[in-house]
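[step 3/7] inverse_fold.run input=structure_tokens len=274
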């Protein structure tokens, strides 16, 4: 056995040992749950009894079990991910961790499934109670791993739907996040129009305004996009197929802080378009 084969065999042995340890942990956790349940009624009056805190271990054990399955190329990995998502005590952070692990191991489809489940958990409550910073991060990752505009489009639509009841006065999303989604939507519109898909381009661009209009601090961005949008609409009306040569500029969407965005907006020659 050459060194590479020996190293692979050793890794598989360690993974098997990890799997056995996790299964043992599951059995211990189950027995602990049963023990807690059996002693609930044995306390004095007025005492709330023993609290079964070990239930919080379940999603962690399932996450570890899923990771081992992934590393072993276990065909049941998807089933274990679904089981994790269906566990009552699972939180969005567990699924987000699972998704990032999938990406690290080049399992894009499983990553997308894990992010989808995380998003579902985050958006089960009313919009007013939704943690939009976490929603934005999950949607951003889903968009980033999308392989086409068509695949990314539902994620932009999902965010617009979640934000439709808000105005610039009470929008729960940060200026930085709104800026990112606006420019990403706009740039997809630019690309669509360069491919002479004017209807699709208009949909992407109008979607960009839905985000920028939710922040008064992004009025400068709305104005910049508005000037190019008028050119798009005129070209659509005229059927101008040479428009792809003039609509070549893209909006810059860097990873910046709110303070940096404010500083950019305050400069008359803001380097917004490249």
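[step 3/7] decode complete -> sequence:
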């Amino acid at each position: 056995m050459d060194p590479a084969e020996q190293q692979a065999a050793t890794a598989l042995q360690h993974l098997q040992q990890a799997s056995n340890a996790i299964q043992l942990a599951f059995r211990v956790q189950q027995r602990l749950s049963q023990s807690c349940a059996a002693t609930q009624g044995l306390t004095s009056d007025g005492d709330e009894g023993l609290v079964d805190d070990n239930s919080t271990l379940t999603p962690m054990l399932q996450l570890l079990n899923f990771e081992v399955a992934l590393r072993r190329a276990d065909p049941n990995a998807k089933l274990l991910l679904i089981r994790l998502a269906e566990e009552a005590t699972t939180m969005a952070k567990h699924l987000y961790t699972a998704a990032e692990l999938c990406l690290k191991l080049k399992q894009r489809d499983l990553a997308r499934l894990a992010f989808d489940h995380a998003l579902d958990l985050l958006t089960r409550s009313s919009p007013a109670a939704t943690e939009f910073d976490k929603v934005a991060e999950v949607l951003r990752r889903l968009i980033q791993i999308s392989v086409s505009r068509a695949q990314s489009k539902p994620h932009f639509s999902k965010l617009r739907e979640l934000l439709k009841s808000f105005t610039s006065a009470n929008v729960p999303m940060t200026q930085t996040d709104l800026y990112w989604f606006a420019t990403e939507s706009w740039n997809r519109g630019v690309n669509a129009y360069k491919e002479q898909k004017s209807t699709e381009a208009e949909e992407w661009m109008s979607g960009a305004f839905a985000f920028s209009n939710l922040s008064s601090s992004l009025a400068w961005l709305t104005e910049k996009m508005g000037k190019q949008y008028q050119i798009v609409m005129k070209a659509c009306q005229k059927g101008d197929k040479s428009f792809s040569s003039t609509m070549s500029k893209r909006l810059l969407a860097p990873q910046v802080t709110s303070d940096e965005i404010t500083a950019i907006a305050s400069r008359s020659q803001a380097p917004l378009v490249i």
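[step 4/7] annotate
Residues 126-265 form one domain.
The chain has two domains: 60-122, 126-265.
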